Amino acid sequence: MLEAKNLSKKYGDKVAVHQLNLAINPGEIFCLLGANGAGKTTTINLFLNFITPTEGQVSIKGINVAKQPLETKKHLAYIPENLMLYANLSGLENLAYFSGLAGKKFSKAQLIGFLQEAGLQDAAHKQRVQKYSKGMRQKVGIAIALAKNAEVLLLDEPTSGLDPKASNEFAKLLQKLKEQKVATLMATHDLFRAKETGTHVGIMKEGQLVEHLTTQEINHSDLEKLYLQHMN
Ligand SMILES: Nc1ncnc2c1ncn2[C@@H]1O[C@H](COP(=O)(O)OP(=O)(O)OP(=O)(O)O)[C@@H](O)[C@H]1O
Question: Is residue 58 included in any domain, yes or no?
Answer without folding.
Answer: no
